[in-house]
TrEMBL record:
UniProt-listed Enzyme Commission number(s): 3.5.1.19
Entry-linked InterPro entries: Isochorismatase-like_dom, Isochorismatase-like_sf, Isochorismatase_Nicotinamidase
Metal-binding as UniProt keyword: yes
Enzyme class, UniProt record, top EC level: hydrolase
GO BP: pyridine nucleotide biosynthetic process
UniProt keywords, alphabetically: Hydrolase, Metal-binding, Pyridine nucleotide biosynthesis
Family from the record: Belongs to the isochorismatase family.
Name of the protein in its database record: Nicotinamidase
NCBIfam families: PRK11609.1
UniProt KW NAD keyword: no
Chain ranges of the Isochorismatase-like domain: 3-198
Domain of life the protein comes from: Bacteria
Length: 199
């Protein structure tokens, strides 16, 4: 059984959003097209409390995109985004929401970020995605969504390490590119880990 994972296709990551990913809206038609080919579709949703520690606004004298140490982990400071219940946290309105079977929320712990759809960044707390996929008899996952160099990459790497055959659809992902080349490096990292990159 093969599942489609839609990674963080949410308003705040679209071009008008708080943490806009360039061309982020372009993944929506790709996701819609793929959804009809999969019996199981799971969407992840970045879902932060309003005082989440990944927000630059929570750190006086720090600025957006600065990297700090947070609970022992390198943390990029982001603009406030995907706050629980906000418009920005909603899944993109262009998505065929009726075809989404399950939504997995992540980043709900105020003290730690969760780029991966499977675990918090310290790998201590699971989001429940792995259990859900096993319960549904899934052995293989295909990913599309945002952003290539963060949540797509870390979800794909965790999927591989949890034993799922994993592929990422290149025209269904877009990245942040904090540093030029980040997306290319993310794709290389995924490939090296055994993720299949497909068109
Ligand atoms: Zn976030």
């Amino acid at each position: 059984m093969k599942a489609l994972l839609l990674i963080d296709i949410q308003n705040d990551f679209l071009p008008d959003g708080a943490l806009a990913v360039a061309e982020g809206d372009q993944v929506v038609p790709v996701a819609n097209r793929l959804m009809s080919e999969f019996a199981l579709v799971v969407a992840t949703q970045d879902w932060h409390p309003s005082d989440h520690r990944s927000f630059a606004s929570q750190h006086p004298r720090r600025h957006i995109r600065e990297v700090i140490n947070l609970s022992g982990f390198e943390q990029v400071l982001w603009p406030d985004h995907c706050m629980q219940g906000s418009h920005g946290a909603k899944l993109a309105p262009g998505l065929n929401l009726g075809e989404i079977d399950f939504i997995i929320q992540k980043g709900t712990d105020v003290d730690i970020d969760s780029y991966s759809g499977f675990f918090d960044n310290d790998h201590r707390k699971s989001t429940g995605l792995e259990a859900l996929l096993h319960e549904q008899g899934v052995q293989e996952v295909q990913l599309v969504g945002l952003a290539t160099d963060y949540c797509v990459k870390f979800t794909a790497l965790d999927a591989i390490s949890q034993g799922f055959k994993t592929s990422v659809v290149l025209d269904g992902i877009r990245g942040v590119e904090l540093t030029p080349g980040d997306c290319e490096r993310a794709i290389q990292d995924m490939r090296l880990a055994g993720v299949e990159i497909i068109q």
